From TrEMBL:
One of its GO terms (cellular component) is extracellular matrix. Its main location: secreted. Belongs to the fibulin family. This is EGF containing fibulin extracellular matrix protein 2. The keyword Repeat applies. It comes from Chinchilla lanigera (Long-tailed chinchilla). Pfam families: cEGF, EGF_CA, Fibulin_C. Residues 54-92, 133-172 form the EGF-like domain.
Length: 280
């Protein structure tokens, strides 16, 4: 009982006691203290639940690529090939070539990714990283005149013995007679042919012929043995390539008559046992 209630009449004391009890049971409405509505960073007050709720910062598009909402915060993430910039929100390209990209030969950085390329003479494997040698010789039989040899990243042309490589693909005969790379004696003449040479006797004239030049033999008209023989014989050597298409003219010869009405006859005297050559 309140101290001042003892000074009141009995009925008034009873009413004062009732009012005191009613005031305790039904307090007056009052506003929530400010401390209840103040939330920490990353949260906001929810009047329905009367609690602080998390703010979904991702809905404000703070991140350039991907946003992951966290309780009271958020985190930005980048797509593959990128990394977070200094502000932790924007994404910058990653140069995979400087970070040990798995390219076997050459690496080219591009926006958000990288490309592997191969050196000349190689092709990119199906895995996109390794390089395989290209066998250029298997693509064409016309790369080299004689033989094509595949090498790592390239190919080379080879020539048979007696030939030398002309430029990079053609073969040229080595003239051993002109270069002096022969073994002929002083009594012999070097005759060059495709892929080699031959040493022949310088004087091939047989009685009754006499040698009048390096390759010409003359039968003197004053010699009775020359009456039924050609007046002269000329020795010439020529190199004939093999596997050439036929028919083909190998050489041409023309006779000039010294005497009117003279009869000239041509024939293959040796080396035609199988009838491979004919005169027309």
């Amino acid at each position: 009982m309140l101290p001042f209630a003892s000074c009141l009449p009995g009925s008034l004391q009873l009413w004062a006691l009732l009012l005191l009890l009613l005031g305790t049971a039904y307090p007056q409405d009052s506003e929530e203290p400010d401390s209840y509505t103040e939330c920490t960073d990353g949260y906001e007050w929810d009047p329905d639940s009367q609690h602080c709720r998390d703010i979904d910062e991702c809905r404000y598009r703070y991140c350039q690529h991907r946003c992951v909402n966290l309780p009271g915060s958020f985190r930005c993430q980048c797509e593959p090939g990128f990394q977070l910039g200094p502000n932790n929100r924007s994404c910058v390209d990653v140069n995979e070539c400087d970070m040990g990209a798995p390219c076997e030969q050459r690496c080219f950085n591009s926006y958000g990714t990288f490309l592997c390329r191969c050196n000349q003479g190689y092709e990119l494997h199906r895995d996109g990283f390794s390089c395989s040698d290209i066998d250029e010789c298997s693509y064409s039989s016309y790369l080299c005149q004689y033989r094509c040899v595949n090498e790592p990243g390239r190919f080379s042309c080879h020539c048979p013995q007696g030939y030398q490589l002309l430029a990079t693909r053609l073969c040229q005969d080595i003239d051993e007679c002109e270069s002096g790379a022969h073994q002929c004696s002083e009594a012999q003449t070097c005759v060059n042919f495709h892929g080699g040479y031959r040493c022949v006797d310088t004087n091939r004239c047989v009685e009754p012929y006499i040698q009048v030049s390096d390759n010409r033999c003359l039968c003197p008209a004053s010699n009775p043995l020359c009456r039924e023989q050609p007046s002269s014989i000329v020795h010439r050597y020529m190199s004939i390539t093999s596997e050439r298409s036929v028919p083909a003219d190998v050489f041409q010869i023309q006779a000039t008559s010294v005497y009117p009405g003279a009869y000239n006859a041509f024939q293959i005297r040796a080396g035609n046992s199988q009838g491979d050559f004919y005169i027309r």
